[in-house]
């Protein structure tokens, strides 16, 4: 149950200059969230998460990153030394586990893992990713050892304001199942229920969705009756 204090927590989210700012009632301070896009430290991009130089590479935006209360990005590949490529169409990606330390050195606190590449090296690759992030002090959302774990919100505090983070991905190669590791799938009715449940323990729910369904007019027939904006109302979706 939410107590009376929770009822006084922020009533609006304002987008400003690429930052997400939680604007609470006057008696509470604001919280600034910086939300980045994909981080995929492969090929030429590997240096972005190299622990030896990541801090220097990201130095140009270190000031705005430091000014935020919470910094989030999407990790677009597993971090694993194991090569067990998933049979699929499209590229199969992976990066070294110590990239998590480089991402932490760059200034990020949390990573969403719900995307179409997180299972490119199977359950072992995902397990290695979760372990690497935990070892680097980075919290994660959107993927886990089964559907329940992948669906669980990451609840964090930013300037004293509780924020629940959910991450959803297109329902394809990477989708988790009842007894299968993977990413939390985009399933609008279930996602709506997840958001409403997360709201019981947080002032805001941030849902990060990896697919164009939110802006596309050509929805899957299964969802033709349901507006994504209605489904994800009362949360900020990206």
Can you describe this structure?
With 238 residues, this protein is of the alpha/beta class. It has a single domain, classed as Purple Acid Phosphatase, chain A, domain 2 (4-Layer Sandwich). It contains 8 helices and 12 strands. A 6-stranded mixed sheet has the order 1-2-3-4-5-6. The radius of gyration is 18 Å and the shape is flat. 44% of the residues are buried. The model is unreliable at 1-26 and 213-238 (pLDDT under 50).
Helix content: 10-25%
**Main pleated-sheet profile:** 6 strands, mixed
N to C succession of SSEs: HEEEHHEHEHEEHEEEHEHE
The strand order across the widest sheet is 1-2-3-4-5-6
Q: What structural category arises from helix and sheet content?
A: alpha/beta
Total helical elements: 8
In CATH, the architecture is 4-Layer Sandwich
Give the radius of gyration: 18 Å
Q: Look at the structure and give the mean pLDDT.
A: 82
Q: Mind telling me the CATH class? A: Alpha Beta
What is the overall shape? flat
Strand content range: 15-25%
The beta-strand count equals: 12
